[in-house]
Amino acid sequence: MSATSGPLRSTRLADLVNTLDPKLVAAALGMDPEGVMIYLADHVDAGRPPIGTKFGAG
């Protein structure tokens, strides 16, 4: 296992969780849904308006 395999695996998992249903990803990989939510919370849409603006929540 190389030194970059951990971050690469995390990046791939984050991509799956953010493009697909996190519950499906968790089921497919044999994980708890709470385990993949960490990767979902680490992603912010580039087109999302900032909080506190006219169109952003808050």
Describe what this molecule looks like in 3D.
The chain has helices at residues 5-19, 22-29, 33-41. By secondary structure, the chain is mostly helical. The radius of gyration is 14 Å and the shape is extended. The relative contact order is 0.13.
Descriptive keywords:
single chain, 58 residues, mainly alpha, extended
Beta-strand content bin: under 5%
Instruction: Count the DSSP helices.
Output: 3
CA gyration radius, whole angstroms: 14 Å
Helix amount, in percent?
55-70%
Order of helices and strands: HHH
What distance separates the N and C termini?
Answer: 44 Å
Query: What general form does the structure show?
Result: extended
Structural class of the secondary elements?
A: mainly alpha
Give the total of beta strands: 0
- pLDDT averaged residue by residue: 74
The biggest beta sheet reads:
none
Low-confidence stretches: none
